[in-house]
Design goal:
- The chain contains ten helices and five strands, in the order αβαβααααβαβααβα.
- The relative contact order is 0.18.
- The protein has helices spanning 2-17, 47-60, 74-84, 86-91, 96-110, 118-133, 143-146, 162-173, 177-199, 220-233; strands at 36-41, 70-72, 136-139, 153-159, 211-214.
- A five-stranded parallel β-sheet has the order 2-3-1-4-5, with helices on both faces.
- It has one domain (2-18, 35-159, 207-233): Rossmann fold (3-Layer(aba) Sandwich).
Length: 235
């Protein structure tokens, strides 16, 4: 249910962006600054809740005719890719003078790697194109590293203690404590392996981020407000 609701919001964003000459104009074609956010997270830290609150906060501070902010995590990106051929449909709305920047980043990340990396390559292309459009919050999948050279992207890490993350996962998914703990450790290890294998990066490196928030001490809504204020201050 939550995935379906997120997909509907993502498709609303896409439909807005696909309106030629309308609200889907790029920031370069209007006076609005281009903005995007990436969120790296520890499992159970509440990043998805923070992201949804952040999207609402940022949209409330946008002009009325602006495209809605949308949250894309791994599942949403893959679903939109599958159902709507997203990279190809959105590519024709990208300014030509920005294509070279995306190409340069893709070449730097993948030119020396074998064809077996095709899926990661395509996911990276989607992440870059979504970031290019702006008004997106991208969770995981190496988005923080992929967009590191894009000055309009604000990069965030959401963390928390293992004990509090276990409690959160138990409440959210109704797992027993041992199952919740095992799930957290497995997913955190998997994300570290993914980032190290494909991007030679460590998600625990604080230099990857503009901001790191510990949700043990900062409530989700406050975390969203802090991030939102920081994003809106950037020009």
């Amino acid at each position: 249910m939550k995935t379906q609701a997120g997909l509907e919001r993502a498709l609303s964003f896409i439909n807005c962006q696909l309106q030629p000459g309308g609200a889907g104009q790029t920031a370069r074609e209007t006076d609005a600054p281009r903005r995007a956010v990436t969120i790296s997270r520890q499992t159970g830290s509440g990043a998805h809740i923070v992201a949804q609150n952040l999207a609402a906060y940022l949209h409330a501070h946008e002009p009325k005719d602006a495209c809605p902010w949308a949250v894309f995590d791994r599942n949403l990106v893959e679903k939109v890719l599958e159902d709507h051929n997203l990279p190809q449909r959105l590519a024709r709305f990208m300014p030509e003078d920005r294509a070279s920047e995306i190409t340069d980043i893709m070449n730097e990340l993948f030119d020396l790697h074998p064809p077996s990396w095709t899926l990661v390559h395509k996911t990276t292309d989607t992440i870059l194109r979504l970031a290019e459009l702006g008004n997106v919050i991208l969770i995981g999948r190496g988005a923080t590293v992929i967009t590191a050279k894009l000055p309009y992207v604000f990069r965030v890490r959401i963390i928390g203690s293992l004990e509090k993350r276990i409690k959160h996962v138990q409440e959210l998914d109704h797992f027993t404590r041992p199952v919740a703990r095992a799930r957290i450790l497995q997913e955190d290890r998997g994300r570290k392996r993914y980032l190290r294998k494909y991007f030679d990066a460590d998600p625990d490196d604080p230099l990857l981020y503009h901001l790191i928030i510990n949700t043990d001490d900062v409530p989700y809504e406050e975390a969203a407000r802090i991030i939102g204020e920081a994003v809106l201050r950037r020009r």
